[in-house]
């Protein structure tokens, strides 16, 4: 035990071990933060919720902090509801039953790139007569552009760039036929130049019944979003990046722990009892070498279930009987002959006691480096399976983000952030454990110490 | 297995005269039987897994039923036939298709049929997959993809092996030097698999610099003359091969270097140094010689490892190799192709392990076949 403590004290002498430990510590903190910040059900809802959850986000845009490093600034996305701070809602009743409901929202647009899409989500209450709205956009130069007039139902969405009437009107006014460019350019410039300054969105509504009301939500899809950007389904990548940490860590650690402890225990049992049991373990190990590991995992994923727990179970099952059993067995056979084991036998210790209290503890120094070094392999295994389309169907993982990015041609289309974010996290995780593992190997393995 | 019978025949009469020969023969016999046993169990397990406890049969049956119903319904010629006759027709077609795929016999029998055919290397016909030139023979499907895999895996793995052994030998001579420390520092980078580096390489060289192709093995209009064709394939080979190499290069050098260092700290090496032997001789005679069995084992396992291909790297780079074929076969529930790929690997592994025992005797005079047991 004292030896073990001394070994741990020695870690501080290896800068790479300290660095690795630091990374692992950060990852654990990130994982805990993710689980507390976004509870499991919330994470699943945010990742699989459908258009109702993601409508506020633009499609395939990089993170907002990209602007710090860019010359041409990308507009940031926002969504605001009528009546909230800045988006004024004034109700002026005119005749007994009718009322004018006006919304006004001023926003700054100081970017060099046009937004992706502007949308207005109307909700209204009425009995039989639909309310009516007129929408205007007042440009910084004071020009008032009529966007549209429409009667609205209980739930109505107005998409600026898909409105045929607006497109025709813009063309008539000699503006670009893409409403985003047409609305946000300095008039009569070719090629179009974005007009910077303060814009004002005006919605003039009119209700025709007592108790009828209009509400509106203004959604501005810019070209950048949040801390991590979004993917092809408008999902905030932050959810997957955060939740990927606890999943990757638990998969890697559980697999490494279970595999190394089980193979050690099995090797110890085989070496201690010998005979047919030992023979059987040896044969199983050889059969396992013939089995195609990745192909079996792919088969389980394709035919049976891609649930991360099933995959974890099969991974452990396939990784117990590997070369590790053979090398542990060789050491156990040596240890078995030592005098302290003989002493234990002499005082009548049970087989169980000898295996688990005398044989295995001797091997812990050998176990720890292997265990730590094995973690990255399993973390990447999960990502590899996800890359083949066999990721967990429910949980967001780093591998699944890479898979989505790959299958949607992120590299061809230049959405590099989409692949780089999860890839960097995977790399950091892998490096952290590998660096610590290497250092531990040198500390615990006296043969390597001088080398 | 042929080795088995030979050993039995040769072993019996010689037993009385030379005990060494009998020992070798007996060892060979036992070894061959255990290896064959291992192959049989391993392949049978794969067959069982490829069937998922009858689950895959259900999937295939439903699939057949759906396809046949659609075909019968879609055919305009059938529209004037009464519904009963049409249903009868669909049932007949389903029965025929199930018979073709062998689903009419219970899995227990079918699994042994697969096993015995596989053991005789009678790979049979694929259920759903077709080779690019239209053959359903598993042999053709595999042979068609073999050159691509051998090209990719061969170049990368052979380069990796010889380069890392060579560098490791050089480093072990000057351990503690800058390059040695660099390799130690970089060795954790091997935690990431090849496809991971592949993605970065594609990003850099294909997407950003646009100097190398994103994937595939040859450009779409295939170059006319052989020279251009070879150049084109080589251009496509650079990225996948280098990602396979980079992902294990540093760890491989590190492991070999550590291995050589352990051997070069032996007393007889110090003795040789004291005698003033040139370092080339010391390496050849005192370091490489005792490590030869390990080097050969690693090399042999590497060579048979070429067979399996690299499923994920090939998928990322759209390389038409065996790994991707196996992946596609699993997607098609095509048991004959899965079993075919497994049995060949199993045989290669068994034969290699069998032969290695004899190679050890050739390279290391201290080792005796069947000795030490």
Notes on the structure:
With 451 residues, chain A is an alpha+beta fold. Chain A contains 17 helices and 9 strands. Chain A has helices spanning 2-11, 15-37, 40-48, 51-54, 164-172, 179-183, 237-273, 275-290, 293-304, 308-320, 323-336, 339-346, 351-390, 398-407, 410-413, 416-444, 446-449, and strands at residues 78-81, 87-93, 99-109, 117-125, 132-138, 144-151, 155-159, 197-207, 213-221. In chain A, strands 2-3-8-5-6 form a 5-stranded antiparallel β-sheet, with no helix packed on it. In chain A, strands 1-9-4-7 form a 4-stranded antiparallel β-sheet, with no helix packed on it. In chain A, strand 2 (87-93) and strand 3 (99-109) form a beta hairpin. The radius of gyration of chain A is 32 Å and the shape is elongated. With 373 residues, chain B is mainly alpha-helical. Chain B has 2 domains: 16-119; 145-332, MetI-like fold. Helices cover 74% and strands 0% of the residues of chain B. Chain B is built from 14 helices and no strands. The longest helix of chain B is centred in the middle third of the chain and has 39 residues, at 226-264. Chain B is flat and about 100 Å long. Classes of the chains: A alpha+beta (451), B mainly alpha (373). At the A-B interface, helix 8, helix 9, helix 13 and helix 16 of A face helix 2, helix 3, helix 8, helix 9 and helix 12 of B.
Strand proportion of chain B: under 5%
- Major β-sheet of chain A, in short? 5 strands, antiparallel
Reported for the largest beta sheet of chain B, the result is: none
Helix content of chain A: 40-55%
Shape category of chain A: elongated
The averaged pLDDT of chain A comes out at 88
Low-confidence stretches of chain B: 1-16
SSE string of chain B, helices as H and strands as E: HHHHHHHHHHHHHH
* Helix percentage range of chain B: over 70%
Q: How many individual domains of chain B?
A: 2
Outline of chain B, from the CA principal axes? flat
């Amino acid at each position: 035990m004292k030896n073990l403590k001394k070994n741990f004290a020695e870690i501080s002498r290896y800068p790479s071990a300290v660095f690795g430990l630091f990374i692992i510590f950060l990852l654990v903190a990130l994982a805990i933060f993710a689980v507390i910040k976004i509870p499991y059900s919330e994470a699943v809802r945010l990742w699989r919720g459908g258009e109702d959850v993601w409508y506020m986000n633009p499609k395939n845009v990089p993170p907002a902090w990209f602007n710090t490093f860019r010359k041409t600034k990308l507009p940031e996305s926002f969504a605001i509801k009528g009546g909230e701070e800045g988006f004024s809602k004034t109700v002026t009743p005119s005749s007994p039953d009718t009322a004018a409901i006006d919304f006004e929202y001023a926003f700054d647009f100081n970017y060099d790139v046009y937004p992706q899409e502007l949308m207005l989500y109307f909700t209204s209450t009425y009995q039989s007569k639909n309310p009516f709205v007129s929408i205007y956009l007042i440009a910084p130069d004071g020009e008032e552009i009529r966007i549209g007039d429409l009667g609205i139902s209980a739930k109505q969405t107005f998409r600026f760039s898909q409105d045929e009437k607006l497109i025709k009107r813009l063309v008539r006014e000699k503006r670009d036929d893409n409403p985003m460019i047409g609305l946000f350019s300095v008039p009569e410039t070719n090629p179009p130049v974005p007009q910077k300054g303060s814009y004002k969105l005006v919605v003039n509504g009119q209700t025709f019944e007592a108790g009828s009301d209009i509400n509106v939500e203004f959604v501005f899809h810019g070209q950048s979003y949040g801390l991590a950007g979004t993917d092809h389904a408008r999902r905030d990548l932050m959810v997957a990046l955060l939740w990927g940490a606890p999943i990757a860590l638990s998969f890697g650690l559980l697999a490494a722990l279970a595999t190394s402890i089980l193979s050690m225990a099995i090797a110890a049992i085989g070496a201690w009892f010998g005979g047919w049991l030992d023979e059987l373990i040896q044969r199983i190990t050889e059969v396992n070498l013939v089995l195609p590991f990745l192909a079996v995992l792919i088969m389980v994923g394709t035919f049976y279930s891609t649930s991360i727990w099933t995959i974890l179970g099969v991974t452990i099952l396939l990784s117990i009987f590997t070369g590790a059993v053979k090398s542990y067995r060789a050491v156990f056979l040596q240890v078995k002959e030592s005098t302290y084991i003989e002493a234990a036998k002499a005082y009548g210790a049970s087989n169980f006691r000898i295996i688990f209290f005398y044989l295995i503890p001797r091997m812990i120094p050998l176990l720890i480096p292997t265990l730590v070094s094995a973690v990255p392999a399993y973390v990447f295994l999960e990502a590899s399976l996800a890359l083949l389309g066999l990721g967990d169907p429910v949980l967001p993982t780093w591998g699944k983000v890479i898979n989505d990015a790959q299958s949607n041609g992120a590299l061809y289309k230049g959405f590099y952030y989409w692949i780089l974010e999860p890839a960097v996290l995977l790399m950091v995780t892998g490096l952290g454990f590998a660096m610590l593992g290497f250092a531990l190997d040198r500390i615990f393995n006296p043969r390597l110490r001088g080398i | 297995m042929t080795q088995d019978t030979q050993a039995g025949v040769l072993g019996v009469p010689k037993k009385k005269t030379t005990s060494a020969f009998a020992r070798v023969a007996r060892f060979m016999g036992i070894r061959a039987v255990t290896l064959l046993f291992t192959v049989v169990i391993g392949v049978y397990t794969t067959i069982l897994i490829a069937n998922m406890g009858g689950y895959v049969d259900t999937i295939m049956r439903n699939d057949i039923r759906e396809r046949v119903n659609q075909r019968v319904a879609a055919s305009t010629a059938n529209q004037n036939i009464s519904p009963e006759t049409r249903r009868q027709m669909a049932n007949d077609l389903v029965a025929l298709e199930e018979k073709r795929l062998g689903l009419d016999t219970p899995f227990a029998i079918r699994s042994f049929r697969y096993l015995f055919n596989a053991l005789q290397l009678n790979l049979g016909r694929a259920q759903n997959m077709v080779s690019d030139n239209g053959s359903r023979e598993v042999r053709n499907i595999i042979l068609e993809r073999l050159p691509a895999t051998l090209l990719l895996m061969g170049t990368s793995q052979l380069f990796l092996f010889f380069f890392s052994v060579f560098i490791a030998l050089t480093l072990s001579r000057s351990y503690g030097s800058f390059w040695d420390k660099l390799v130690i520092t970089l060795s954790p980078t091997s935690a990431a698999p090849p496809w991971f580096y592949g993605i970065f390489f594609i990003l850099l060289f294909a997407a950003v610099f646009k100097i190398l192709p994103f994937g595939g093995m040859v450009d779409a209009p295939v170059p006319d003359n052989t020279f251009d064709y070879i150049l084109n394939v080589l251009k496509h080979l650079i990225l996948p091969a280098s990602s396979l190499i980079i992902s294990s290069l540093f760890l491989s050098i590190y492991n070999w270097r550590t291995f050589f260092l352990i051997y070069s700290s032996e007393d007889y090496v110090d003795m040789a140094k004291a005698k003033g032997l040139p370092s080339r001789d010391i390496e050849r005679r005192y370091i490489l010689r005792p490590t030869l069995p390990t080097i050969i084992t690693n090399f042999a396992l590497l060579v048979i490892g070429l067979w399996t291909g690299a499923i994920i790297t090939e998928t990322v780079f759209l390389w038409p190799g065996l790994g991707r074929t196996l992946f596609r076969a699993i997607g098609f529930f095509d048991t004959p192709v899965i079993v075919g790929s497994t049995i060949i690997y199993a045989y290669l592994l068994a034969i290699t392990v069998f032969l290695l025992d004899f190679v050890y005797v050739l390279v290391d005079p201290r080792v005796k076949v069947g000795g030490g047991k």
